[in-house]
Write a sequence for this structure.
């Protein structure tokens, strides 16, 4: 006997193509022109912030920075679909997600300056930046299990890179999500590179979305440079997750900048490849669409950029004036402070250890 026991397929979804044309058959009902305008403004703001952060790092005013250039749509499109109670478990590149979740800009700069005080978003249970690749996914799936247990209706959404999908933690999280049917959405940001490792060397799987199938989850691909497509796919996945059907979304995008400010991509990729992806970047197509609808022009663009500059400069001044409370290095580890840590904190205060900063310079 010979029979097929499994056959899978991965849908690829694009709503707004690179020429600014909308596929009306896929356009979600709630996506109006004014919402697309909002998406454009948010993506533009994220890009302005990104450029500022890069220049601050070069001046030594913030630490190592992972730019989001080229990935604005995957972040803004997904974040606009989230509901307040959903829990976001990011890695290290989701700056625009933080912004849309309500992190004030000055707090964001505080976090880039190395202070945890800038990590918390009021009213959201989202977790902070996570740099170890993949280790946040078991946390995400555990949080999702807890939300299911509490019958909260909230969904957990986590982001991981193409490189991260090769980690054991990734497969373990998917496996748990499938067996326990938790309200989880995993967004694979396939930006074609894991530092210097290209997508083709990362995995022989034809798509990264199909990795979901082995764990019994749904897997779907979306044009990650299409903000409307991202919104649609994430919104659909959130509805499914709320019914305890987890989804893995692979968004196809491109990291146009360096991996982090510690990286030099000219060492491992060609200008030609970057140019090809620049033509497909997320903002141009939305501007084309909005211009064709008479909703955008050069003067509006100029005004918007000037507003961003003012807002960013004010936030930065506030962040640079921020003085951390050194006691805070003892906080944020436990929900209540264990006695032994309290003793250490008291001893440190008594010794005035932070009053003498000369030894730390
Ligand atoms: C467990 C672990 N291994 C290695 C690293 C070093 N490292 C930092 S980012 C990165 C590449 C990640 O690539 P990808 O998952 O594609 O995400 P991207 O940065 O492209 O968004 C690596 C290997 C790390 N942070 N954690
Ligand atoms: Mg990557």
């Amino acid at each position: 006997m010979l029979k097929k026991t499994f056959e899978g397929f991965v849908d690829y979804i694009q709503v707004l193509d690179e020429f600014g044309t909308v596929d009306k058959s896929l356009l979600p009902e709630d996506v109006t022109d004014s919402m697309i305008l909002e998406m454009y403004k948010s993506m533009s703001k994220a890009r302005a912030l990104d450029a500022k952060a890069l220049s601050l790092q070069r001046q030594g005013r913030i630490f190592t920075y992972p730019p989001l250039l080229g990935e604005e749509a995957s972040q803004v499109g997904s974040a606009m679909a989230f509901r307040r109670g959903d829990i976001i478990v990011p890695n290290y590149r989701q700056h625009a997600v933080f912004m849309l979740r309500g992190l004030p800009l000055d707090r964001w700069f505080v976090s880039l300056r190395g202070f945890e005080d800038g990590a918390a978003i009021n009213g959201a249970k989202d977790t902070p930046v996570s740099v170890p690749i993949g280790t946040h996914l078991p946390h995400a799936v555990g949080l999702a299990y807890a939300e299911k247990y509490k019958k909260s209706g909230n969904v957990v959404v986590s982001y991981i890179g193409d490189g991260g999908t090769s980690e054991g933690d990734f497969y373990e999280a998917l496996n748990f999500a499938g067996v326990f049917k938790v309200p989880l959405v995993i967004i694979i940001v396939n930006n074609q590179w894991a530092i210097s490792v290209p997508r083709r060397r990362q995995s022989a799987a034809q798509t990264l979305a199909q990795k979901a199938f082995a764990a019994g989850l749904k897997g779907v691909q979306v044009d990650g440079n299409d903000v409307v497509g991202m919104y649609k796919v994430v919104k659909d996945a959130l509805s499914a997750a709320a019914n305890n059907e987890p989804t893995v979304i692979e968004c196809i995008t491109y990291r146009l900048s360096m991996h982090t400010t510690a990286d030099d991509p000219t060492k491992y990729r060609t200008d030609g490849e970057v140019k090809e992806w620049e033509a497909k970047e997320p903002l141009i197509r939305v501007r084309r669409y909005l211009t064709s609808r008479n909703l955008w022009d050069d003067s509006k663009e100029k005004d918007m950029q000037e507003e961003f500059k003012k807002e960013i400069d004010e936030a930065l001044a506030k962040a640079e004036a921020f003085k951390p409370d050194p006691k805070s290095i003892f906080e944020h580890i436990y929900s209540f402070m264990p006695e032994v840590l309290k003793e250490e904190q008291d001893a440190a205060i008594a010794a005035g250890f932070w009053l003498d900063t000369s030894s730390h310079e």
Summary: The chain has a mean pLDDT of 95. The longest strand covers residues 184-190. The pocket of thiamine diphosphate (ligand 1) is lined by residues 93, 131-133, 161-164, 189, 191, 193-195, 255, 259 (CB under 6 Å). The chain has two domains: 11-324, 325-361.
